[in-house]
Design goal:
652 residues; mainly alpha; 4-stranded mixed beta sheet
């Protein structure tokens, strides 16, 4: 079956998005591309809200709470529409895909195919896992929700901090994956990969196309250009798979284009074909932002930053069209309030200072050069996209429209944040922290945000250039209609193939190394994975396994389905846990160790050697050389990986 194994959980996820989010989008009055782009965003809000409510009410986690929340929202929408005298109609509109027609569908499919190839090349196999530090938490968090129904962002942190040391953790990505595990029956790694595939190959390109449609236009050229650019930026969606791994952040950035498109629509500045009352656009924003924030606050802060040009254009238009003093006063009051709220959110949504100490990697000129060339992280320029951005700047200067200003300003914000985070050190450190601290002062995250910021301008440059060529051809040979169609299709196909070169192939190679499973894998080797997958045969359910989480032993929880003493490296260590980690080898002579073993129901130990996921050492002396200490017995092994059963403390 190979990668086709991901088809079933991916289909389940798409159906979940369609039922929970697509239905609401249709009820509101959205159609066509808007519905497809809105479905995962609304569903993410529904799932996130349902997880909080289910946590408050003590309800077990499944799709049922989300269905109830979605049903209640749907009823409210229907009642409001009837009260407003515009009942819901499910009749097919005359122009379901306005402007672009089947070109939009074809471009979306082509983008999905290209991105699917990119993602599957990275994964290599359906059950591959990211061999990274963060992935231990992500995989185990899904198993934790399955066991304890702790899907709420107010509860998931208890997996590592049962005493409340992590009071909030963006959990909607994990809650969604848990639903797919329950409905599909697929393994946690397979569901994670299927979810990543849907986010990268469906949610991202469709949202990108929608944002370009709103800012550039709904022409077939604009839609194809947006799709081509969406598959050609190495820093998104591939970089969050390579670095981190940043699964929740990837989800938040994938839905961000839809929220930006809706923001432009509610402000009345977009080229939008949908005819909705501004109140409904406001409702769409209100329905989108919780999902964006619960996916990851970094995506929400990115929305704050990239929506500033839209607000500025709206304010300028309003000021010029509303000469009355009273109206202008209210506009100023609103802008001041907007600025204050934005400033407060920037402060509130910053992680702790200890997590914001990422160093400055580049001098300022290098940072500028890498940002303009799009050569960050992978050391090779995304030539075609970088040229498209430059051409877009030329066209923007030539047209000088409000939308051109928005696109250029968004690009400048993305570029500016990247330069700040990568080069503002020394006396500028506090300014850097103020501007980019919400993203941990982590330049890889800002490189991904920059991809969203530059996409409309790149697509704009490509669109206007293609339209210029088309106009001149039509003027020279107006009768060559079929030839233009054939050339247009061929040019689009070439664009999908050529634009990603050479940077995206480099990004794929880099990310493949993160997912490779072999003897040298840094988190879990092939031998260790084989041992983990046999744990259900060797370890009784309910018995806890000790092991050093830095060596990957903690993944016995998500992959082996057995409880572990430490489900992550950064876990609150109790006194009993510390006794076991430091002195289990003394169990024959130390009764306190046996008391701790009994209290925590620890019965087995995984020994994955000294290799750790990071090039560092975090030894747990009590778990080393246990066979020589005579406190354990070997029950299973694969290569150098060992599973021991504790025989001391009367357990033998």
């Amino acid at each position: 079956m190979g990668m086709l194994e991901l088809l079933w959980p991916a289909t389940v996820l798409v159906l979940v998005y369609a039922v929970l989010g697509g239905t609401l989008a249709r009820l509101i009055g959205l159609r066509g591309l808007w519905v497809v782009a809105a479905a995962p965003v609304f569903a993410t809000t529904v799932i996130g809200g349902a997880s909080v409510i289910a946590g408050w009410l003590g309800i077990g986690w499944s799709i049922l709470p989300s269905l109830v929340v979605a049903a209640l929202i749907a009823i409210g929408i229907v009642l409001v529409r009837r009260w407003a005298g515009r009942p819901v109609s499910w009749r097919r509109p005359s122009a379901r895909w306005p402007g672009a027609g089947w070109w939009t569908v074809g471009a979306a499919i082509a983008a999905a195919v290209v991105l699917t190839i990119q993602v599957t090349l990275v994964l290599g196999q359906p059950n591959a896992i990211s061999q990274t530090f963060d992935n231990v938490f992500h995989l185990n968090a899904i198993q934790y929700i399955l066991d304890f129904s702790a899907a709420s962002p107010l509860e998931l942190g208890q997996m590592t901090s049962p005493n409340g040391g992590l009071p909030f953790y963006p959990s909607v990505w994990h809650a969604t994956a848990t639903i797919v595990v329950q409905l599909s029956g697929a393994s946690i790694p397979a569901v994670v990969n299927a979810q990543t595939l849907v986010i990268a190959a469906v949610i991202w390109p469709v949202g990108a196309m929608l944002l370009v449609r709103v800012l550039v236009g709904a022409s077939r050229t604009a839609m194809v250009s947006a799709a081509i650019v969406s598959v050609s930026i190495p820093t998104f969606p591939l970089l969050p798979m390579d670095y981190g791994v940043l699964y929740p952040f990837q989800l938040s950035l994938a839905v961000l284009p839809f929220v930006l498109a809706a923001t432009a629509s509610v402000l009345g500045i977009g080229r939008d074909a949908e005819r909705l009352h501004r109140g409904w656009w406001a409702f769409i924003i209100v329905g989108s932002l919780p999902g964006l924030a619960l996916a990851h606050p970094g995506g929400f802060v990115a929305w704050l930053a990239l929506s500033v040009p839209m607000v500025a254009v709206f304010a300028w238009r309003t000021w010029r069209s509303r000469p009355a003093v009273r109206e202008r006063v209210w506009l100023v009051v609103g802008l001041v309030g907007y600025a204050i709220v934005g400033f407060v959110l920037l402060k509130v949504l910053r992680p702790p200072e200890a997590a914001r100490l990422w160093p400055v990697p580049f001098p300022k000129l290098q940072a500028l050069s890498e940002g303009v060339q799009l050569s960050m992280y992978y050391g090779i320029s995304a030539v075609a996209v970088a040229l498209a951005v430059i051409i877009g700047l030329v066209w923007a200067i030539r047209e000088r429209t409000a939308m051109a200003i928005v696109m250029v300003a968004s690009w400048l914000i993305g570029l500016g944040l990247f330069i700040v985070v990568t080069s503002f050190g020394g006396p500028l450190w506090d300014l850097r922290d103020a501007l980019t601290g919400s993203w941990y002062n982590n330049w890889q995250r800002l490189a991904s945000v920059f991809a969203i910021a530059l996409l409309p301008l790149a697509a704009f440059g490509l669109t206007r250039t293609a339209e210029l060529v088309q106009r001149r051809w039509m003027a020279a040979r107006p009768e060559a209609t079929k030839a233009r169609l054939v050339v247009g299709i061929a040019a689009a196909a070439i664009g999908f193939l050529v634009f990603p070169l050479p940077a995206v192939p480099r990004a794929i190679v880099y990310a493949q190394n993160v997912f490779d499973l072999d003897d040298d894998s840094v988190l879990v080797s092939a031998d260790e994975m084989a041992l983990l997958e046999r744990l259900e045969e060797t370890v009784p359910e309910g018995v806890v396994i000790a092991g050093n989480p830095y060596t990957g032993a903690g993944l016995a929880y998500a992959i082996g389905g057995r409880d572990v003493l430490m489900p992550h490296m950064l876990v609150d260590v109790s006194d009993d846990m510390e006794l076991i980690n430091e002195h289990l080898d003394d169990a024959l002579t130390d009764d306190e160790v046996c008391d701790a073993v009994d209290a925590l129901n620890v019965g087995f130990v995984l020994d994955f050697g000294e290799r750790e996921v990071h090039p560092d050492t975090h030894p747990l002396p009590g778990l080393e050389d246990l066979a020589d200490a005579g406190v354990v017995e070997l029950v299973d092994s694969e290569g150098d990986a060992r599973l021991y059963q504790i025989t001391a403390c009367g357990l033998g």
